[in-house]
Design brief:
The complex is a heterodimer of chains A (237) and B (391). With 237 residues, chain A is an alpha/beta fold. Chain A has a single domain, classed as P-loop containing nucleotide triphosphate hydrolases (Rossmann fold, 3-Layer(aba) Sandwich), CATH 3.40.50. Chain A contains 7 helices and 10 strands. Chain A starts with a strand and ends in an 8-residue tail after the last strand. Chain B is elongated and about 100 Å long. In chain B, helix 2 (17-56) runs antiparallel to helix 11. Chain B has helices spanning 2-15, 17-56, 86-91, 145-151, 186-189, 197-204, 233-236, 238-276, 278-286, 291-327, 352-379, 382-387, and strands at residues 59-63, 79-80, 94-105, 111-118, 139-144, 158-164, 170-181, 192-196, 209-210, 212-215, 228-232, 329-330, 345-346. In chain B, strands 3-4-8-5-7-6 form a 6-stranded mixed barrel. A two-stranded antiparallel sheet of chain B has the order 2-9. Classes of the chains: A alpha/beta (237), B alpha+beta (391). The A-B interface holds A 54, 57, 59-60, 79-80, 83-84, 86-88, 92, 94, 96, 98, 100-103, 107, 111-112, 114-116, 159 and B 3, 10-11, 13-15, 279-280, 282-283, 285-293, 381-383, 386. The structure holds adenosine-5'-triphosphate (ATP) and magnesium ion.
Chain lengths: 237, 391
């Protein structure tokens, strides 16, 4: 990253066709997120959080402007290049976990490593590490339907983290969890952020999540309304 | 590809009952197709063997004017045994037959027949010609079971035979049925009577003459002598191939329908699965697959039905098919009325080629049927798939 930025958006606009007209979901987003940040997009429902996260995750294309993710301008990527950006550098965490139901916990977490062609010894070690980060070492053989919501989300975090990506995008990761589980998961992610230096970008309107964020980016109607950085004891960002 | 196969197997096993229903239907078509084709191949093989045994040996030489479909020409198309065949005839590796036309009068009716003069000592055909060696004032004859049924004759019966000799003079005498044989070869039975060769030559005033020669496998056929034509076994049995081909068309419809059912089941499963698993598709894409790779994943998954079906078929089909090959399949109806060469019990013959082409063909069809609905994935928007909101 030339300028230490993981994400940089420039005049990012996203329009969706609605009926005969169009709906502007993102309206000129200028945003810079540096390496190791623990930031969140905060805003009411419909403010464009998921839309922005999807474009940053190269799952969607901007209508105009640009999103540069890890030095790659998303709008110029072929679908193959976008896939390899996600495969190598981005971990996704979804509100509804999106685990593969017929696979065990171990296999779910192993999946990104299979795509990256790690050998089986490396895979086993990395999966076990990731499961120990989230405290699920004893559930490797369970399948998602047998797990609680909190456990499922922890598996999803392990899956997102196992390849040690540069960037993790988490869309409402606590929406289906109770307070205790939410705190548990957020602590886990905070630790990973601190220890591995992984950049986290959340989309949320959950107060519990917001209290953990070191940077809060408020979205209203597809625009950045406020951008607050929490000052900690060291005075750094 | 290995990852795709691994994923496909996990997904299929995870899908449970639906997978097994598809696999069972498909494996059923596998076994039925191979069985029917095996029965047809066995029939072909059997019919040719019967024809060799009872009619044509390992091949024949015909008098150049001989036409089995024109009985009126028989009187003109015969010739003395050619020099080149004498040694073979003496050792029994090639047997002369004199063929003429005649009329039988069973119970006051009239039936025209082909009279075949054959050496009672011949060993090439399985016709019981040994019975022609009987001492009787009448002419000893053996006939096939189809002929016996038509004549309502049984062994020991006497029937008047009338014929016209080489000089055009009519003559008549009794034949006595010395033996009745069953051959599954209609052309060797219907309208044919077999009598001793020397007797016929005398009756016809055609000493030392023959219409055709049938040779055994120990005879090495050479270029035909002047006035004779070599008819190989392949040529003479080609009518059987044609008949089997004709019968096979009907069977193809049966297994076409079976296969269609199996394919509909798989197609339906694929369509449903792509609809129900949108979130999973979106997840694959988020994890780093391209949409085309996901199409490939679903195609492999669908094709795996054929692989699993082949394995299942081997499990129960192999014992069934081998048992069939050994015990044979008894046709539940009387086939002698068909006028076609068909044994009561057919022994299916399965060649490696038959099994391989069937499995391969079904696999390719399954792959296409799996790919077809999966193409939709390539047009999905990953974000819509993740939300699971596509129609
Ligand atoms: N594919 C689409 N077609 C049309 N409109 C869309 C589409 N996707 C999103 N939108 C619209 O864009 C706006 C922003 O949607 P987005 O999902 O980004 O909101 P959000 O901030 O994530 O909301 P929530 O908190 O409810 O998840 C919404 O008004 C939504 O209706
Ligand atoms: Mg959202």
């Amino acid at each position: 990253m030339e300028n230490g930025l993981v994400i940089e958006t420039k005049k990012l606009v996203k329009k969706f066709p609605v009926g005969k007209g169009e709906f502007i979901a993102l309206n000129g987003i200028d945003l810079k997120i540096g390496k190791g940040e623990f930031a969140g997009l905060i805003g009411p429902s419909g403010s464009g959080k998921t839309t922005l996260l999807n474009i940053i995750g190269s799952l969607d294309m901007p209508s105009s402007g640009e999103a540069v993710v890890l030095d790659r301008p998303v709008s110029t990527l072929s679908s193959r290049e976008a896939a390899s950006l996600r495969k190598e550098s981005i971990g996704f965490i979804f509100q509804s976990y999106n685990l593969l139901a017929v696979h065990t916990v171990f296999e779910n977490v192993e999946f990104p490593l299979l795509l990256l062609n790690y050998n089986s010894a490396d895979r086993r070690k990395m999966v076990n590490d990731a499961l120990s980060w989230v405290g699920l070492s004893d559930k490797t053989r369970s399948k998602p339907p047998q797990l609680s919501g909190g456990e499922c989300q922890r598996v999803a975090i392990a899956r997102a983290m196992v390849k040690k990506p540069s960037l993790v995008l988490a869309d409402e990761p606590t929406a289906n969890l109770d307070a205790a589980n939410s705190h548990n998961i957020l602590t886990t992610m905070e630790t990973l952020n601190r220890e591995l230096g992984t950049t986290f970008l959340f989309a949320t309107h959950d107060e519990k999540v917001i209290s953990y964020l070191k940077r809060k980016i408020f979205l209203v109607d597809g625009r950045i309304d406020r951008d607050e950085v929490k000052q900690n004891q060291n005075g750094e960002k | 590809m290995r990852l795709a196969i691994k994923l496909a197997i996990r997904n299929l096993i995870g899908a449970g009952l639906r997978t097994w229903l598809n696999v069972i239907v498909l494996s059923f078509s596998f076994v039925v197709i191979i069985w029917i084709k095996g029965v047809m191949a066995g029939w072909d093989h059997q019919a040719k063997k019967d024809m060799s045994d009872f009619e044509i040996g390992s091949g024949q030489y015909w008098h150049s004017g001989y036409d089995p479909y024109d009985p009126f020409s028989l009187l003109d198309n015969h010739a003395p045994v050619p020099e080149g065949f004498r040694a073979g005839v003496a050792e029994g590796s090639i047997e002369p037959e004199l063929i003429v036309q005649g009329t039988l009068y069973p119970g006051g009716r009239l039936q025209s027949v082909i009279i075949r003069g054959i050496d009672p000592d011949q060993k090439i055909l399985k016709i019981p010609t040994g019975k022609l060696d009987a001492a009787t004032d009448a002419i000893p004859a053996v006939i096939g079971s189809i002929m016996a049924k038509n004549l309502k004759a049984s062994a020991g019966d006497r029937i008047m035979l009338r014929w016209r000799d080489a000089h055009g003079t009519f003559d008549a005498t009794d034949i006595v049925i010395e033996g009745i044989f069953s051959s599954n070869v209609p052309s060797a039975e219907a309208g044919q009577i077999y009598i001793p060769l020397e007797r016929l030559r005398k009756m016809m005033s055609m000493p030392g003459e023959a219409t055709l020669f049938t040779f055994s496998s120990s005879f090495s056929p050479e270029t035909a002598p002047e006035g004779w034509v070599l008819r190989t076994r392949k040529e003479l049995t080609s009518s059987i191939d044609e008949m089997i081909k004709m019968k096979s068309t009907g069977q193809s419809i049966l297994y076409g329908v079976l296969l269609l059912l199996a394919m509909l089941a798989i197609f339906d499963t694929q369509v449903l699965s792509i609809f129900r698993r949108q979130k999973e598709i979106g997840t694959y894409i988020a994890l780093g697959y391209t949409r085309h790779q996901v199409v490939g994943l679903f195609t492999v998954e669908g094709t795996m039905y054929a692989v699993l079906a082949a394995i299942l078929s081997a499990a129960y089909g192999l014992p069934f098919l081998t048992w069939q090959a050994r015990a044979g399949w008894s046709i539940p109806i009387d086939t002698s009325e068909f006028g076609i060469a068909m044994a009561k019990t057919l022994y299916p013959v399965y060649s490696a080629g038959l099994v391989v082409t069937t499995v391969l063909a079904v696999m390719i069809v399954t792959a296409v049927v799996s790919y077809w609905p999966s193409r939709r994935i390539a047009k999905m928007s990953p974000t819509d798939a993740l939300r699971g909101k596509l129609q």
